[in-house]
TrEMBL record:
This is IS200/IS605 family transposase. InterPro entries: Transposase_17 (IPR002686), Transposase_17_sf (IPR036515). It comes from Micromonospora harpali. The gene is tnpA. Residues 14-134 form the Transposase IS200-like domain. The lineage of its organism: Bacteria, Bacillati, Actinomycetota, Actinomycetes, Micromonosporales.
Length: 138
């Protein structure tokens, strides 16, 4: 459950964790149109739900997509990424035969790499200062 400040709770923890993900097509080829991106957003929402995560924001262009995902601490980002890329590649290939020409070497739509950046909360400098000030002798 989420509270008004976005804090979610698990069995033994409270958390707010977001990751900004960017996936790029193989060789940065221009692959996607609006219909592909619309369907991909729904596919990625479904995958996130399977991981008890939430796709907060999604957008993209013809050769890459951006995702903002709120995820629980029990999920490894690399595992989530592998599932997002694998499922989206497989389903898009099935649903849009016209994309087949863009699948390179072993039917890969996505580049093997990705960007993942942590997002949210106080700026790093503020968190560092807060931690430095804890348990100081008076």
């Amino acid at each position: 459950m989420a509270d008004p400040e976005g804090i979610r709770t698990g069995r033994h923890c409270a958390f707010v964790m977001h990751v900004h993900l960017v996936f790029v097509t193989k060789f940065r080829h221009k692959v996607f149109g609006d219909r592909h991106l619309s369907r991909m957003e729904q596919i990625m929402r479904d995958v996130c739900a399977d991981f008890e995560a939430e796709l907060v924001e999604f957008n993209g262009e013809d050769n890459h997509v951006h995702l903002l995902v709120n995820y629980p601490p029990k999920i490894a980002v690399a595992r989530l990424v592998n599932s997002l890329k694998g499922v989206s590649s497989r389903r898009l290939r099935q649903e849009f035969p016209d994309l087949a020409q863009h699948y390179y070497r072993a039917n890969k739509l996505w580049s093997g790499s990705y960007f993942a950046g942590s997002v949210g909360g106080a700026p790093l400098s503020i968190v560092k200062q807060y931690i430095e000030q804890q348990n100081r002798p008076v």
